[in-house]
Amino acid sequence: MTTHQTAMIMMGLAVVLALAHVLGRLARRCGQPAVLGEILAGILLGPTLFHGALSDVVFPTDVRPMLSTLGNLGVALFMFLVGLELDHRLLRGNKRAAVGVSVGSIVCSFGLGAVLAVWLWNAHPVGDRLGFVLFLGAAMSITAFPVLARILTDRGIQHTRVGALAMASAAAGDVVAWLLLAAVLTFTGSQSSWQVLLVLPYAVAMVAVVRPLLGRYLAAREPGGTGAGGHGQGAAGGERGMAGRGQGVAGRVQGVAGRVQGVVGGEKGPDRPGAGERGPGAGPLGVLTVLLLVSGALSEWFGLHFIFGAFLAGAIVPRQGTERLRAAVADRFEAVTWMLLPAYFTVAGLKVDLSTVDADGLGELGLILLVAVGGKFGGAYLGARATGRPGRSATTLGILMNTRGLTELIILGVGLQLGLLDTDLYSLMVVMALVTTAMTAPLLRWAYPRQMVDADLRELAAEWEAAVPRPQAARAGGGKPSGAKR
Q: In whole angstroms, what is the distance from residue 206 CA to residue 366 CA?
């Protein structure tokens, strides 16, 4: 790297971070997640404005590969954090409804996306028609779990039944959608068959061998004992009868949403347990970083993509007995992610050119939006209704599951890199991701207004209070014990 390249990459990063921060704060003021403004910053730095003259000055061709490398590292850290925040315990008491919502949204989205891909093929032919159809179906099936968590926290509905069910459905749906995408990439990839055969042993080894060893190592280095953080309180609350179970679900949802919101918005969640306490130490931080990088490298070598390895590395980190350490590690990773992810948005934005969109492109964009919203909202709504959820609750879940954001941008980048999307269709799909994410907050205010949120929270509080065993009458009435018992 020459002196000129070093200077340009540092100056370019400064521009990216400043613009992402400004637009992120502006998005928050407008009631939107900050990631929406950060993605928009990347697009504005691309060829959409001034036909690429600005991007050519700020990001010369010879520094773009380095910018891409920094962005990929940010995505790897982000996917690790997404896996780290997944909590299977959110499914307790919500399994049937969560499965119905996630499966309904994925099946409808994939089916409609595949049908749309057959029609779009004539205008956007790529090397593999079947791969194009399968990929577009999988891309339509994604829900942005981190952005969803941030919206729930901003609205204060992470403690409600709808909020907990949305988190559980998005978590389950994310796992299924990532597996589906991995299968599509394996089917359409150019890797040799013997490399593909190593994917299953690799996953089994990560879960059956690496996870137990990692759990013992991290538990021995848990600061201040185990189960002491706010997240641990949520888990402990789940063991106290009916009231404790309700409080445990709320505590776990609060912990997950509070920790994830820092990833997306560049801020530390107020509900993060252990935040501001003693750090995780170089040992655990180094081990998890090495695990993340090695797992990402292996999945890339297998012919999938490094995002799957990074996601799996985060997902296998044990939750029991590592609450504070996991929160402290996430704090450290989020700080780095906040600096690197805008570089990825810029790399993505450099490939988005909306200045060339004509009437036909606007028509395609309209169909893409119709399929994206109809598949996600309709599938989630029907799945929720089929499992007995009332109409307004099903509507709210459909709106929330339509959130895409950064996760969709990552998937689209993979498709463009592998030649499964051309630049024009990629640009339209990025706009779809922005529009569907921007729709969520205002529609949520309409479908689930503040007064209904407050009423649901009061109802839950009353149920938990009623389920708590009452003290003895004498003590409840404030009477003093008798002298014989003194």
A: 42
